[in-house]
Amino acid sequence: MCGRFALDAETDTLIKEFVAAGGDFREWRPSYSIAPTNVVPIVRERADRSTGEVQRTLDQAVWDFHPAFMRDSKRPNFNARIETIASNGLWKSAFATSRALVPMRGYYEWTGPAGDKQPHFLHSEDGALLAAAGIYTARKVDDEWQLSTAIITRPARDASGEIHDRMPVFLETDVWDEFLSPDKLDDDGKANMIALLTAESNRVASRITSYEVDRKVNNSRTAAPNDASLIAPVG
Q: Is 44 left (phi over 0), alpha (psi -120 to 50) or beta?
């Protein structure tokens, strides 16, 4: 799974990296400890209703997928399994129409018994930004539209396989256009998209590596989000 991640890139870097325009989320500040229910940047595409022109934007979303039809829940929905994303009633509509990328530098996983967990930071071996496949939805909160998102996960095929049995679905640049397209997927389209996500994430997984980090990251409430040493290797 992916229950915490780091994104140290500034807004301008994200706009350039993902070739996004507008909705540039100027309030974003790099964070080394992003947890479920935090606000995160996502990259998405939408077609202008009047012109039909598709625009890619960088927007803010709550990392807790919450469609308008769902009642409030104490348990955040932040990961969507690739095995059920096309069939589960919570995810399937967004997967068909509202796909997004969630940028990250890397993510954390833990090993060891409860009370003595060792954190690991998983990242691209060349240090490049990663683009996790995700979905998003929108609902009105206090008369304002709020976006929320979930990251698509799959069985681990990288260094995390030794640490955890799940990992995010990561995509390379050459499939971003196809994944982000706002065109609605029919049943065949959903099956083809899942096949694409599986094959392409295998490519990225082979270049994911990990190292141990300081245990101060273990508590998301006390780990300072602006503390760059959270992703520094130890030992």
A: beta
Q: Is the pLDDT of residue 233 over 60?
A: yes
**3 state DSSP class of 15:** helix
Contact (Cβ atoms closer than 8 angstroms) between residue 104 and residue 28: no
End-to-end CA distance of the chain: 25
Query: Is the Cβ–Cβ distance between 100 and 135 less than 8 Å?
Result: yes
Let me know: does 107 contact 6? Beta carbons within 8 Å: yes
Which parts of the chain fold into alpha helices (H)? Answer: 11-17, 92-97, 176-180, 187-205
**Residues 32-87 pLDDT 10s:** 999 999 999 999 999 988 888 999 999 999 999 999 988 887 789 999 999 999 99
Measured CA to CA, the distance from residue 159 to residue 168 in angstroms comes to: 12
Tell me the average pLDDT across 180-194. 97
Helix (H/G/I), strand (E/B), else coil: 93:
helix
Q: State the Cα–Cα distance between residues 175 and 7, nearest whole angstrom.
A: 21
Distances (CA, A) of 185 to 32, 54, 104, 180: 35, 16, 26, 11
d(CA 191, CA 27): 37
Do 172 and 17 contact (CB within 8 A), yes or no?
Answer: no
